[in-house]
Design brief:
about 160 residues, alpha+beta, about 30% strand
Length: about 160
């Protein structure tokens, strides 16, 4: 396996060490992320996002959504039940799964709903006021001192000379 070093990208940057972790996780061959269940990542506006997962056969009790730091983990555990039916072909997937998504800074999960076999997770980016862009006023400082010259001063000196 070929190793990719991203060190040159980080020589001229500050605070982007999380990107290194993200690239490394993309390069790893993770068997738990095998494509099941299928999902969509959607953008609904400037700061609103969603994750939709196809979880047919699962109900609310079978699913678990956990948010910790910069990760959201969705897992599904289906109890094996013996319903007395002998299936000749079992094509409906109901195996257990766990899928993890990395969240960008300031992303918050605002809700989740399960309808028609689709699990929808709503996300919003909430940037705190103190971290939003702001304009910094530039103050002008002068290194030269300005000497005020008054015409009244000259007139009074001229009057003294004449007297």
């Amino acid at each position: 396996m070929q190793t990719l070093s991203l060190t040159p990208l980080f020589r001229n940057s500050v605070g982007f060490d999380r990107f290194n972790d993200l690239f490394e996780s993309l390069m790893e061959n993770n068997d738990t992320q095998n494509g099941y269940p299928p999902y969509d990542i959607e953008k609904h506006g400037d700061d609103r996002y969603g994750i939709t997962m196809a979880v047919a056969g699962f109900n609310e009790k079978d699913l678990n959504i956990t948010v910790q730091n910069d990760r959201i983990t969705v897992s599904g555990r289906k109890e094996e039940k013996n319903d007395g039916v002998h299936r000749l072909y079992h094509g409906i997937a109901s195996r257990s799964f766990e899928r993890t998504f990395r969240l960008a800074d300031h992303m918050k999960v605002t809700g989740a709903e399960l309808q028609d076999g689709l699990l929808r997770i709503a996300l919003v980016r909430e940037i705190p006021e103190d971290e939003k862009p702001r304009t910094i006023e530039i103050n002008r400082t002068s290194s030269q001192k300005t000497i005020e010259h008054s015409s009244n001063d000259n007139n009074s000196k001229d009057k003294k000379k004449a007297a």
